[in-house]
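Title: Comparing notes on inverse folding

I've been comparing how different people in this forum approach sequence design from structure. To keep things fair, I'm posting one structure and asking everyone to reply with a full sequence. Here's the target:
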């Protein structure tokens, strides 16, 4: 059910009609590089990252291209036009065809790789409709989970009233029952095909799948174990993760987290946003922030990893208030080397809260990250949602 085993790893140089190409293949993907250009495909034939003419790009599962661009010293992904995407798809297909011909003419085991490149030559115009039949929009993931296998076992957000977040305004919160979850997972696995080998870890979407009843979550985890057994390679080998929040997660007792850990959950991501209770209330998010201290202690006692998310970019006196309170709360969470703090510059102004311009938001994020490392000894990294693509 989890896909076929990809070919063994290796590297070589191949003579194409007009130039020499560097070619690398492995369990997760295929990479070709020539004259400064680079293309990465998954084993279902989808280009997913690369460089054309010095322009770095990413391609979503739905077939949308985004270019990595410098905007006021911030490296963010900017959507490309549909026509640009079609041109780059055709360019990747031509390169794959040249690679296949070169492999077919090669001696020994290299020739056996040629049939495996057939999916990379196929027309990719159906990727968008195929994605939409399986998924609702994947709005956001934590930055270290961008290559996870996303299972939308719940849809939407149970709170959906935060003034800084508009990701899930188009859908109501709805956890799937066992039958619907199984059907969705089977459709996801079929959609990805052999390309599932690129995925590292499993993420239970959308905004807070763990707000579902505990028995429902355990059913989901059981389905994942059935699809990806312990002794088989696959994304589950890199863990199972989900978002949580102070409203629903803060109410859960230690037994809840222990049950999920026994079921295979590996870690959670908590949107703390700020350590200041008044500011959190102005952001429309339930708290209080101090509730995170006891909540994280319960999560850690169950053996789960924790990712804590903070915002950055508040203007005026809020900047110092936010920084001081956030450092104080994070310093009390008892995070260890397996945990991480993500600092996310605000994109768009929350209602009734003054924020800095984009460059100022990013600079404040950098300052908070440095303070977390220096004063709290935390592993803190930037989380720019404008770099997200799935």
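Reply #1:
Here's my take.
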């Amino acid at each position: 059910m989890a896909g076929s085993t990809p070919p063994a790893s290796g590297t070589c140089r191949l003579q194409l009609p007009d130039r020499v190409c560097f070619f690398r293949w492995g369990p997760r993907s295929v990479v070709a590089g020539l004259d400064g250009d680079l293309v990465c495909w998954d084993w279902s034939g989808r280009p997913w990252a690369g460089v054309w003419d010095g322009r770095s790009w990413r391609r979503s599962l739905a077939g949308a291209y985004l270019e990595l661009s410098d905007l006021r010293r911030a490296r963010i992904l900017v959507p490309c036009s549909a026509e640009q995407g079609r041109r780059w798809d055709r360019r990747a297909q031509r390169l794959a065809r040249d690679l296949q011909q070169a492999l077919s003419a090669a001696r020994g085991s290299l020739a056996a790789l040629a049939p495996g490149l057939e999916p990379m030559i196929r027309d990719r115009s159906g990727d968008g409709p195929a994605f939409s039949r399986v998924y609702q929009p994947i709005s956001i993931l934590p930055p270290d989970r961008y290559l996870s296998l996303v299972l939308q076992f719940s849809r939407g957000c149970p709170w959906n009233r935060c003034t800084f977040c508009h990701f899930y305004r188009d859908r109501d919160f709805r956890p799937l029952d066992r039958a619907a979850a199984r059907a969705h997972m089977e459709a996801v696995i079929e959609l990805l095909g052999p390309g599932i080998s690129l995925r590292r870890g499993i993420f239970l979407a959308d905004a807070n799948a763990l707000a579902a009843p505990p028995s429902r979550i355990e059913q989901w985890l059981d389905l994942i174990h059935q699809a990806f057994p312990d002794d088989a390679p696959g994304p589950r080998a890199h863990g199972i993760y989900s978002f949580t929040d102070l409203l629903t997660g803060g109410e859960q007792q230690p037994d809840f987290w222990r049950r999920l850990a026994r079921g295979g959950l590996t870690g959670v991501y908590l949107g703390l946003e700020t350590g200041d209770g008044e500011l959190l209330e102005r952001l429309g998010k339930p708290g209080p922030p101090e509730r995170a201290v006891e909540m994280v202690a319960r999560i850690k006692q169950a053996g789960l990893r924790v990712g804590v998310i903070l915002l950055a970019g508040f203007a005026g006196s809020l900047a110092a208030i936010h920084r001081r309170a956030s450092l104080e709360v994070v310093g009390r969470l008892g995070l260890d080397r397996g945990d991480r703090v993500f600092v996310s510059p605000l994109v768009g102004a929350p209602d009734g809260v003054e924020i800095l311009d984009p460059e100022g938001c990013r600079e404040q994020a950098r300052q908070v990250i440095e303070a977390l490392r220096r004063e709290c000894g935390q592993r803190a990294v930037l989380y720019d949602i404008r770099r997200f693509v799935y």
